[in-house]
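Lab meeting, item 3. Inverse folding demo.
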C-alpha cells in the first residue's frame, strides 16, 4: 500500500524540547524505563503528539508525556514530534478511567479520607455520574460495596486539579493501575481479579487542556485519551541527530531528507485497521 492511499501524511517536525509543555504529569517509573530503552536502542521509535498552543511559540504535548520527559532528562535539545491540531477531524479527546488493583479497599478509603478538603459521599452510580457531569464532584469511584462521589468541600482554597492529583496520589505507587474506557465495574472485575475500585474522572474539552497548560497546571498521568486517526509510529530517529549540537534548521533539513528517502523507497505504510501493539 502506497502512502498516498492514506488521507494525508503525518506532519513531523524537529522541535526544541524546551517549547513542549505537558498537560498531564509523567510517570516516574515509566520515564526511567523509557530513558534506559532509549539509551539501549539509540533511537526514538514513536514520536510524541503535540498541538500548537495558540498565540505562543510553545506546543502542548497531547500524547507522549513520558517520552518527552525521558528526552528532557537525557539533556537532548530537540525532539521529533508529530504536530496535529484539535481542529483536525482525526483528533479526538476522551477520558481514561483507572482500574485500581492489588490494594485493600480499606487502605484506599483511608488514603482518600486523609486528603484535605475531600469528602467521600456514598450514592448511586447514576447520582455520581450526574454530580460529575455538573462539576459538583471531582471524580467518583465504584467498588464491590457501592459508589462514592469524591467531592471538593473547599473549592475556594483548593482547586479541583490539585484535589484530583491528590486522589491519584492516594493509590499511585501502592496499587497496580490499569486504564479502562467505561465505568462498568462488573465488566472490569473479571479481567482484574484483584480489583479494588474503578476511579472515574471528568470529561475534558480541548479548551480545558489549553487553559490548564496556560495556568501551569497538570492533571494526573493516564487520564486524558487522545485518539489520533493517522498516527506516526516506528519512525526510529537516531538519538545522535537529536543530541547533536547543530542549529534547528539543519536538523529540520535532515528530517526532510529522511522523509524523501522513505518516500522514494516506498517504506511508508498506512494501516486503516485498529491495531494492537505487543511491544510497548
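The presenter then showed the designed sequence:
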Amino acid at each position: 500500500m502506497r502512502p498516498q492511499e492514506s488521507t494525508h501524511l503525518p506532519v513531523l517536525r524537529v522541535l526544541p524540547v524546551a517549547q513542549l509543555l505537558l498537560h498531564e504529569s509523567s510517570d516516574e517509573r515509566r520515564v526511567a524505563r523509557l530513558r534506559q530503552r532509549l539509551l539501549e536502542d539509540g533511537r526514538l521509535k514513536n514520536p510524541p503528539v503535540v498541538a500548537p498552543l495558540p498565540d505562543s511559540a510553545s506546543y502542548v504535548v497531547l500524547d507522549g508525556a513520558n517520552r518527552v520527559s525521558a528526552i528532557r532528562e537525557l539533556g537532548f535539545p530537540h525532539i521529533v514530534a508529530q504536530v496535529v491540531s484539535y481542529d483536525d477531524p482525526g483528533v479526538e479527546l476522551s477520558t481514561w478511567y483507572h482500574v485500581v488493583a492489588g490494594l485493600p479497599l480499606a487502605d484506599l478509603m483511608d488514603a482518600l479520607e486523609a486528603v484535605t478538603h475531600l469528602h467521600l459521599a456514598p450514592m448511586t452510580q447514576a447520582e455520581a455520574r450526574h454530580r460529575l457531569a455538573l462539576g459538583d464532584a471531582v471524580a467518583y469511584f465504584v467498588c464491590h460495596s457501592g459508589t462514592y462521589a469524591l467531592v471538593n468541600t473547599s473549592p475556594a482554597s483548593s482547586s479541583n486539579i490539585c484535589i484530583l492529583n491528590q486522589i491519584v496520589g492516594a493509590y499511585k505507587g501502592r496499587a497496580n493501575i490499569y486504564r479502562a474506557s467505561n465505568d462498568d465495574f462488573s465488566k472490569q472485575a473479571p479481567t482484574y481479579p484483584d480489583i479494588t475500585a474503578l476511579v472515574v474522572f471528568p470529561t475534558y474539552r480541548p479548551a480545558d487542556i489549553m487553559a490548564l497548560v496556560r495556568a501551569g497546571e497538570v492533571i494526573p498521568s493516564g487520564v486524558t485519551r487522545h485518539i489520533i486517526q493517522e498516527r506516526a509510529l516506528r519512525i526510529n530517529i537516531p538519538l545522535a541527530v537529536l543530541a547533536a549540537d547543530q542549529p534547528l534548521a539543519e536538523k529540520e533539513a535532515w528530517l526532510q531528507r529522511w522523509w524523501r528517502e522513505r518516500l522514494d523507497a516506498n517504506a511508508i505504510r498506512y494501516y486503516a485497521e485498529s491495531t494492537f501493539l505487543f511491544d510497548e
